[in-house]
Amino acid sequence: MEKIKRILVSQPKPEAGKNPYAELAERHGLKIDFFKFFKIEGVSSREYRESRIRILDHTAIVFTSKIAIDHFFRICEETRTVVPDTMKYFCTSESIALYLQVYIVYRKRKIFFGQKTIEDLVQIIQSKHSGGKILLCLSDSPQETISAAIEEAGIPFSQMILYHTVSCDFDGQIEVNETNYDVCAIFTPAGVKSIFDNYDGFSQGEMKVAVFGESTKQAAEKAGLRVDIFAPTPEAPSMSMALDHYITEFNKRKR
Predict the structure, then answer these.
(1) Domain that holds residue 205
(2) Which terminus in the chain has less CB density within 10 A, N or C?
(3) What is the pLDDT of residue 148?
(4) Regarding beta strands 208-212 and 183-186, do their DSSP bridges make them parallel or antiparallel, or are they unpaired?
(5) Exposed/middle/buried for 38, CB within 10 Å: 0-12, 13-18, 19+?
(6) What is the CATH number for 28?
(7) How far is CA 154 from CA 124, 130, 131, 149, in A?
């Protein structure tokens, strides 16, 4: 590989005016393609009932994504579950916490969020929640990190699967290999799974793999991928910034 010129971002193409990758492409003379590696399918109200997990048996909810919030309140509506005002909400980031405003009156609820890490969130739960059981709202994609951290802290909790991640079919739409792309950016463990669902015995070769988040990194390495670029970091809190830093240094060495 002489220089990095072609990047595949495993997300839908950003809306016009909200695309940090456009500036990245212009700065480095890149061709950037976008393709979502998986789709979301919410669990049905019947699946929720069959799980025997009951929302009202808990005194606090933990959300790790905005998608989880959407499907939580959808299930509440479909099952006519009225969440009491006393329910506490713990979120892994401020942006996820603020998204709760779509469904509840934010200022009247007990809402808390982490700043940097899962450990940080667990400490907040320990300081702000006492008594009762916590409900951890997740997808079916493995998220051992947060559940293990809560369990290790001795906090009673249940896990509720709210939505499934289904791998998209790449055939005829995208070819993920070192011939077509110099870098492939992956954002979730489900994205890693999708590659191997589409390509049995996938090998990245010289193609660089960029990942976002510790859980995605763990999934990639467990699957045998070499992680070349990682975000977030203090220097690069976003994927586009991590790519910018890496490409700048990589292409400089190839001059």
Answers:
(1) 6-37+168-253
(2) C
(3) 86
(4) parallel
(5) buried
(6) 3.40.50.10090
(7) 14, 12, 12, 9
